[in-house]
Amino acid sequence: MKTxxxxxxxxxxxxxxxxxxxxGLTEAALEPYGHYKAKVDVxxxxxxxxxxxxxxxxxxxxxxxxxxxxxxTTVGLGDAMRRLGRKAMICLREPSLGPVFGVKGGAAGGGxxxxxxxxxxxxxxxGDFHAIGAANNLLAxxxxxxxYQGNALGLDTRRIAWRRCVDMNDRQLRFITDGLGGRxxxxxxxxxxxxxxxxxxxxxxxxxxxxxxxKERLSRIIVGWTRDEVPVTAGQLGAHGAxxxxxxxxxxxxxxxxxxxxxxxxxGGPFANIAHGCNSVAATKTALQLADYxxxxxxxxxxxxxxxxxxxxxxxxxxxxSAAVIVATVRALKMHGGLAKADLGRKDxxxxxxxxxxxxxxxxxxxKVFGVPAVVAINRxxxxxxxxxxxxxxxxxxxxxxxxxxxxxxxxxSGGEELAGKVLATADRAGGGAPRFxxxxxxxxxxxxxxxxxxxxxxxxxxxxxxxxxxxxxxxxLGFGGLPVCMAKTQYxxxxxxxxxxxxxxxxxxxxxxxxxxxxxFVAALxxxxxxxxxxxxxxxxxxIDIGPDxxxxxxx
Length: 557
Known about the structure:
Elements: H1 4-10, H2 16-22, E1 30-32, E2 38-40, E3 54-60, H3 70-83, E4 88-92, H4 97-101, E5 109-110, E6 113-116, H5 118-122, H6 128-148, E7 155-160, E8 164-166, E9 176-178, E10 189-191, E11 193-195, H7 200-207, H8 211-219, E12 222-226, E13 231-233, H9 234-237, H10 240-246, E14 254-258, E15 263-266, H11 281-290, E16 293-297, H12 302-317, E17 323-328, H13 330-336, H14 349-369, E18 374-379, H15 386-398, E19 402-406, H16 408-411, H17 417-430, H18 445-457, E20 461-464, H19 466-477, E21 485-488, E22 508-517, E23 522-527, E24 546-547, E25 553-554
Parallel strand pairs: 3-16, 3-17, 4-15, 4-16, 8-11, 17-18, 18-19, 20-22, 21-23
Antiparallel strand pairs: 1-2, 2-14, 5-6, 6-14, 7-12, 9-10, 12-13, 14-15, 22-23, 24-25
């Protein structure tokens, strides 16, 4: 059996100019990066500002080691819609080098439903992440230089909030001491690094509408606090203009293609368990001007990515999906039902029935809490039993959600035509409904967090650590209480305990700390053991990635 990278490398690519031409993009709007990828200057679109396409969100059940295939389904669904004669394109996030070299692998889809060139997309791509890291670290350098040069703003060096970042999983950098070696080398303090996808600069780039909005948001970044608890911002340091200059090209969406030549924007990549987990507003809005149907994904399960997509991205950008797709697999649901990974290939209706409540909770969240009509995509594996598949279909019908088999991994777009037909019918029937959020902007931070925990996760309530409660009170006094909340929670459970699979009951969410991302425009609430700098596993994927004398890369997945 061919690997994903072997399948991708065998695919015939069309010049990116042909992909752009099919979208109606002029040569002036296209900035090629080689033959098969390009930046799009959104200020030079033929119909700038006219978003007439329908938005379709792809989300999933709570992820497991068995795999769900959300990106693969997104790619295959776009290909299938074009096979049915619709003008469709997809919007994905850019992969982070951390997961690529770690345990998760790349983020370009799989099998015969991939975006290409797969190696470029997973390794450096057009340099957006490096630009984001440079902008982040420029601010850190200017902050420390300000302190060294006399600290005119009166920053309390014990309360510096800005950390450096690097696009790599590196646990050694989580907690460091820097500024050592005497006064000429800075002011000593405890510090640390975040992974680039967790940087507020990443979130800002993905939520900004244009360069002016980008600069304004960058200027609002809080880098630290004075002894009198007054926030100090990037704007006060005079850093936002230079940061925006570094991000000038990174703000432009990246155009590539699927293996079946469906146009694809891949732009931005914040994690959904520690950030808002969606591709850029610029890419989504541009796609809605160029295509009749735009399929985009949000990270991890509907409790994380979809909730933030709707409560944060859509709220800020004035977007709303016409339909949602919830991806599930028989294997993953049986794992939620308690079956060991080694046994997932055998038929087990009991384990499936015990795991199905996880899927049903996600359907309820999407359709009943947010009011978005949903179609369940059953990502089929060869060992799936027909009786197991029928059980999923029947339970979905009970909640008013249609289900369709998806075989795009094995067959590409032709394996997604049934799913595409149902999604198109649902989106066309629903149109673009009125937004329905989990909480109101006027709610207190506590009520917002409690609303997400109770309505979306199914928790009995929220326990706030004393420090988190004190910080929320302070943020509300400073005027940040009207911001949406961005929940940082494990992706492996509806609860904040990754060991609780399925649809857990009788639990509380513990918020251990909160922090404001004033530029991005949300307050992050950290639960459980979530960290903003992951580590590599015992056997990282990097050990299996290589390049041959012919320049061909192997080992990516």
